[in-house]
Request: fold
Amino acid sequence: MPDLYDVAAIGNAIVDVSAPATDAFLAANALTKGAMMLVDAEQSAALYGKMAAGVEASGGSAANTVAGLASFGGRGAFLGKVANDQLGQVFTHDMRAIGAHFENAPLENGPATAVSMINVTPDAQRTMCTFLGASVQFTDDDVDPGVIEAAKIVYLEGYLFDAEAARRAFAKAAALAHGAGRMIALTLSDSFVVERHRAGLLGFIETQVDLLFANESEVCALFETDDFDAAVEQLRQRVTLAAVTRSEHGSVILTAGERLTVAAEPVEKIVDTTGAGDQYAAGFMFGLARGRPLQLCGKLGSLAAAEVISHYGPRPQVSLKELAASKGY
Amino acid sequence: MPDLYDVAAIGNAIVDVSAPATDAFLAANALTKGAMMLVDAEQSAALYGKMAAGVEASGGSAANTVAGLASFGGRGAFLGKVANDQLGQVFTHDMRAIGAHFENAPLENGPATAVSMINVTPDAQRTMCTFLGASVQFTDDDVDPGVIEAAKIVYLEGYLFDAEAARRAFAKAAALAHGAGRMIALTLSDSFVVERHRAGLLGFIETQVDLLFANESEVCALFETDDFDAAVEQLRQRVTLAAVTRSEHGSVILTAGERLTVAAEPVEKIVDTTGAGDQYAAGFMFGLARGRPLQLCGKLGSLAAAEVISHYGPRPQVSLKELAASKGY
Reply:
């Protein structure tokens, strides 16, 4: 197959509703700051009713990564499920408008397009309550072999481990990708996801994953330890390549023989940390797909993460291609 | 009736879709920079398909004004029509989340909630294509006497002059307001609206309007002249009170005996001019409803306009109450 895409990503197709919130609001609604909590349709409506006036924009972790990749000038494809409703149309429009391939048919007669309610506190932390709706109706039938086999890297969003049908879709995608000599990347997404599916994730990582993305708390949750260095060493023994992000401390890149550290890109004012990990993965995979050295892949990741946390919203607002060029990356 | 509201506004209930655009995009799609053009459902879908990835947020001129009023600490009510769909729910949520009264029943089995596609060019100008959808199904049945009679100022959005049923609603609102000793304010909204309904608007202004808002091009269109001073003099003879905005040149406040000039509030960087006039009206009417001198009403308008053009989106992102306090207004 020709290299049609740098990255094909499978993830939850979600529209974000972002609104300012106070710590007191989080406490009153029993929300854990910085985490992602799943809510059902009723809880979703109740929480939305209490939230401040917000802004809607396409989100979804892996979809944000595809948007970042496109901003670097990369060629992306997205696989995911929206409903045939207004927010599904918004998500679809935005994905195509950035030049990404997105052709999964919308769900008919099922739940609505997924919505993530993001309460952003003055410390720039985002606390997410997600109604997964149509997004978890993604099945292995939605995994288009023509897309998977034509992508240098197939990127899987850990959040989808919550849905059994999606886990089957991951298995299908991994088999197709490896059959075509492609690389499988996975992001752990969230420490609660890791806690819910620790054994399944470890098994999948050991047998299928060539490149793992995680942050500190996720990698610690995966190996049930508070010792970051111990967790990282365990991870290094299990995957060919990993990138672990550490917020303001940058990231650590692990290979069989190496442990590289990459500094964080300085940010004048952190406004909203939504999408930092997604954009790091975008920069890293863009570099990797284009054959750049690992250290530079990490720097591209840091650069994209720094851009996205300097404003509201989970997708870049400037051309990351031009930003990288201005830095000489 | 008690003074339940500082302002009750009747306007188009619209959700904005804002996206970056180039001058070439405007030219290729025959869009006049800075203007508002009406599109039907088909044209709307076609244009949306060509637009860049965007951000959705509640908009609508008079609704933005109510949001500004609420940010000053004012008590607002909004009357308008959404459909019973996802974007209608977003609009309704946002209006109630800012503390405004909004109780018009959504339209069933009709067109979708109105959407305004706003293409923002690098010079911060916004060019709007609006699909009016459900919003123009607003009729005199939707004019709640209990709301109109309890508002110090009843504010009417000129855009609604495009819909015959809404013009009847304006007439009903004006009769109710004057019957209760209330003030009727009108904004001309757009020079093309003025050109389409010049005679009707002039008649309504002369017989019903106590306070008129307009910008330079609208007041010139109203009196079919390029001479701003001549237009302003004609206007002064026809209304008790008027405020004419002049972008970076501030505004002019007209009474029977006076012509006051108010400077624009300095802005570090103009990002998006969407909502400038709406926010000026918010500040002005908040001041007026609270019995402040006219010069200060104009300053409050300038302050709110300056805040909204310093960022994307048509509604304030900071507390205008605190901002005004910090200036000693």
About this structure: Chain B is about 40% helix and 20% strand.
